[in-house]
């Protein structure tokens, strides 16, 4: 989709896409709109680079064919044709290589950022695991205390009420604490 030929520029295209999404999501609310590349600052590989790559591949095949056709009888003509093809091909190859280098640098920076985010996610996962272990230990301790409490309650129920009253009369401070 060419933003220039249809809407004028990238900003207009983005606004159009947002308006389109709003209309579509009014009917189908499960649709999601991606973040604009203007917000995320992400780059896309330009289409001209793909086209140039395809063109260079075709030219390369022509050059290889021209070089392989050179023999003792037609060396002059074929050599001149091969040189002509090479002279037209080399500037585009240099431009292509330079742009691929830029794209590779961008890809490498993205990989580095992904690596940093993966490290951060790993640390967060480890921290979460440690917190879960602490919660698990605390739950285990609570379970043990509840079990002990239940055992104490069973023991108290086995004591006859008269004995408890006797103990309360003999030690009045103890009854207030309970």
Q: What does this 3D model show about the protein?
A:
It is a single chain. It is built from seven helices and no strands. The model has no long low-confidence stretch (mean pLDDT 85). It has two domains: 1-42, no CATH class; 46-177. 0% of the residues are buried. The protein is an all-alpha fold and 178 residues long.
Summarize model confidence as the mean pLDDT. 85
Structural category: mainly alpha
Quaternary structure type: single chain
How far apart the termini lie comes to: 80 Å
Please outline the major beta sheet.
none
Rounded Rg? 39 Å
Element string (H = helix, E = strand): HHHHHHH
Helicity range? over 70%
What are the low-pLDDT stretches, counting only 5+ consecutive residues below 50?
Answer: none
Main features:
178 residues, 7 helices, mainly alpha
Secondary structure: elements and pairs:
Elements: H1 3-6, H2 10-27, H3 37-40, H4 47-68, H5 75-158, H6 161-170, H7 172-177
Helix pairs in contact: 4-5
Summarize the structure.
By secondary structure, this protein is mostly helical. The chain contains seven helices and no strands.
């Amino acid at each position: 989709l060419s933003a220039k030929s249809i809407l004028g520029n990238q900003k207009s295209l983005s606004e159009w896409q947002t308006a389109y999404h709003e209309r579509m999501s009014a009917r189908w609310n499960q649709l999601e709109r991606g973040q604009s590349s203007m917000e995320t600052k992400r780059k896309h590989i330009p289409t001209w680079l793909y086209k140039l790559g395809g063109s260079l591949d075709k030219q390369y095949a022509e050059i290889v064919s021209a070089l392989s056709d050179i023999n003792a009888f037609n060396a002059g003509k074929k050599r001149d044709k091969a040189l002509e093809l090479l002279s037209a091909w080399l500037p585009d190859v240099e431009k292509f290589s330079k742009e691929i280098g830029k794209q590779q640098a961008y890809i490498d920076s993205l990989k580095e950022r992904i690596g940093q985010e993966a490290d951060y996610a790993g640390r967060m996962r480890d921290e979460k695991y440690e917190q879960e272990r602490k919660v698990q230990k605390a739950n285990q301790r609570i379970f043990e205390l509840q079990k002990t409490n239940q055992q104490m309650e069973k023991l108290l129920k086995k004591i006859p009420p008269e004995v408890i009253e006797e103990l309360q009369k003999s030690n009045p401070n103890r009854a207030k604490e309970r």
